[in-house]
Amino acid sequence: MAELPLLIFPQAKIVDPPKGKAGFPPLNAPSKQVQISRLTPQFENLEKQFLADQAILSASIGGLEPEMVLVIETAGRIEDFQRAIANTPGLEWLAEWDEEFEPDEYFFNKDSKQQKTDKRVDGRLYLAMTNQQGLSELLALWKQWQKTNDLPPGKAKWRDVFSQIKVIRRWGIQEQLIETGVLDIWREDLEYEDTAHQHINFQVEFFYRKDRQTRKQNEVIFKTLLEELSGQLISPFLEYSEIGFHAAKAQLSRNSIQTIVEKIDRNELDVHLLKLPSIMFFRPTGQSLTSSPDETAAIENAPEYPVSGDPIVAILDGVPFSQHTWLKDRLILDDADELENEYQPGDRKHGTAMASLVIHGELDANQVPLTRPVYLRPILQPNPHAPNRDEHVPDEIFYEDRIERAVRRMFEGEGDVPAQADTVKIINLSFGDLTRPFIHAPSPCAKLLDWLSWKYRVLFCISTGNISESVNLGVSEDEFNRLNDTEKTQLTLAKINETAHLRRIISPSESLNAITVGASHSDSSIVSNLARRVDILPTPKLFSPISRFGHGFRRSIKPDILLPGGRQLFNSPPIGSIFKASLTGLPPGQKVAVEDNKGDQSASSYMRGSSNATALASRAGAMIYEVIESLRTQMPDAIQGDQIAVLIKALLVHGASKKDVDEVLKQHLKPTPDPRQLKSFSSKSAGYGHANVSRVLACTEQRATVIGCGHINEKQVHEYRFPLPPSLANEKYWRRLTITLAWFTPINSNHRYLRQAKLFFDAPKNTDVLGLSRQESDWTQVRRGTVQHEILESIKVSDYQDGDELVIPVQCNADAIDKLDEQIPYALAVTLEVKEGVPISIYQEIRSRIQTQIKIKES
Which of 105, 445, 559, 602 is found 20 to 30 A from 8 (Cα to Cα)? Predict the structure, then answer.
C-alpha cells in the first residue's frame, strides 16, 4: 500500500458566528415560604459557629480578625454570583465548583409537560470568605428578603441566591480531612507502631487569597498554631498565583495526630489548627511509583542508528542508566538537582524504562529508534525507607515545584543557566499522585500543567495511573480455569464495573491541555511459560485490568487515548478468590532496558502499565513531529512554530477509535447496559479509544487526511472547506469521516469552568450530502475538554455533485472568563476514507481540489 503525504488546508475563511441557542431544562424550586422555613435554622447555625470559632481562636491568637469560609450549595445556575459577592462588604470570593445531586421534594427538573423527572439536578458549590462585617451584611440581606423582594441597589442577585440555596454552611472537617482521605491514612499510620518514625508528615493547602499581606498573615498564624501542637514546617511555603495555589508541608508528632483523631471521633472540634479558616485541605505527602520487577535478562547490542538534531521530547522522571547500551548517546541528561547522588546500583529503574520506550518502543517490536536525542530531567529519587527503594518525591518536596522549575529551565533557563531544551514540543510525565484520585476539582498539579502547556505551547503526555489492588473475582483457581475466554472476560468486566469508582484517574491526569493516556491490554511479547499466572481479561481489544478510568473534569473525555501497556497477568490464589497482579519481569509485557544491581549495560526486563503507554504516546508524538517538519519544509507558512505541539495533540487522537472496545463491552458487559450506560462506561475506560498512529503519519489512495492550523479569537468562526471526491458522488460505498479539533487554553483558576477558551465544530448531520451518522462518543461530552474527536460513517448513497464541499466551521467562545483576550492556537485534522481496494482514488481527487483552493486563495 503506497504511503502518501498528508494534505494541508488553505488558510481558513473568517465568517460571522451563528446566533446562540438558549436554554436549560426548567428547574422546580420551593416557594419563598418553604425556603425561609428550610434555611432559617441554617443561617442561625452559621452565626453560632462563627462566634464559637472566634472564641476558640482568640484564645491562641490575640487581635486576629475572625473569619469563616461559607459554603453555599445551590440548585441550578446563578449567573454573575461572583459579582454579587464582590459587591458585598466583608465577603471575598474563593471558588466555585459544579456538582450534581438527586432530585428531592424541593428541587427537581421538569420535562416539557412541566412534570417532575428523575434526572439529576445540576448544582453549584460556591465558597466565600466572610468576616464579621460580611456575615452581618449577609444576615441583613436574608432578613430583608424574608420581608420583601426589594433589595438594595447592587444586591438584587441575592434574590436568586436565596431562592436557589439548597444548603448554606461553613467549610469544615468533612472537606478538610475526611474527603481528602488524610484522616483514614492517619488512622492507618497510628495502627502500626513505628519507633523509627515518631512524626507524621502532611500537606496543607490554603484558600488562595488575592491580597499578598493576607496570605503572609495566614502563614504566620498557621506556623503559630502548628508550634502550639509541637509541630514544625518541613518545607518553605509555596505559592503560584497563576493557578491559585498556596501550600505548606508540615509535621506533627504521632501523639499530636492521635489526639486530633480521637477528638474528631468524639466530635470535640476544639483543636485550634482545625479551626483555622484559611486551611482548605489537609493532604498526605509523598508521591511514589510502583515497584519495578527484579528479574532481568541480557539483550543483544543495540542497532546503530545515528542521533542528531535538537530534542523534541522531554522526560520528567527518575535518573536513567544513561550508559545502558540501548540508551548511550541518546539522552541529554540534565540533573540540575544532582539527584543521581541519591542512587545506588540497581536503583535507576523507572527513568531507564521510560527512556527505553520513548526512544525504541517495545524492544520486542524491533522498531527504528528516534533519530533525535531525548532530554531527561530527573525529578524523582529513591526512597531509602521503602523495601525496594522505590522512586518518589520526598515528603518535604512539592512535586509541583520540581515540575515547574524543570519546565522553566527547559524554556527560559534558571539563574545564569540559559534555556536547556527550548525546542521540546512534548513532555512525558509517566507518574501520578496515588493519594489524589480525581473527584470534582482539578488538582494543583493538573492546573500547573495546564498553565505551563499554555505558557510554553508544549504538550504534556500524562498517564492515568495504575490500580495496584488485587481483584476479588468471586471464584477459586479451579473454577476460573474451567471458564472459557468469553466467560472470563464477562466475569472480570463485571467486577471492574462494580469497583469503577475506586479506579479513578489520579492527579495530574485530569489536566485539560494534556493528552491523558490509558493502557490497553496488549504488547509484542511472546509467552512461553505462564506458571500459575492467568489472564483475567483475555482480549487485546480492551483496556488493561490495572489501568485507571475517567471521566475527567466536568465529565470530559479522559483518558484521551489508549496505547499498549502490556498484558498484565494475575497470580492464581492457592485458596480463596482474590487474584493479585503479577509484577514479575517475565513476559508477557513490554520489554525495556533496565539497570540491574550488577551494572550490566545490556539488561532488560518486562514491565506493564499506563506509564508504558504514555511513553509510547510521547514516542508517537515525536514521529508525528517529523511528518510535520517535512510538511513545513514544503509549505513554510502553513504551520507556525507555536502550532506544532497542538497539531501533534490533534493527530495523536485523530487515529483513535473505540469501535473494538464498544463491540467487546456490548457482548461481554453483564447485565447488558442500555446504550447510554454503555457509552458512559466505554468513554471513561477507553476515552476516544485505541490510537492508531500509523493512520496519521501518511495517507493512502483510499484515505485522505487534510490538516489545518490557526489562531482564533473569541466570537470568531474559521471556516474550512473539505472538497468531496467526485468518484464517490451518488455511490453506495461504505465511507468514514473523522474530524479532530485540538487546542490549548489559558485557565482561570477562580472560575468553576477553568477552561477560558471553548472551541468546537458542528459535525455533519445524516441529512447532509454524505448521509453520515455519528459513531462512538457522545456529542456533548466531546465538547467538554480541549479535544473534540468525531467519527461519522455511512453506507447510504451519497448525494452531491462534483465541486461540492463539506463546510467545517471552527468556533471559539469564552468559557471561564467574561472576555477572552488571547488568541487561541488550534489544529484541525479531517480524514475521509473508503475501504482499501475500492476502485476510487479519494486521495488524488481531494489533493487536486485542495491545490485548486490554494491557487484561488493566492490569486
Answer: 559
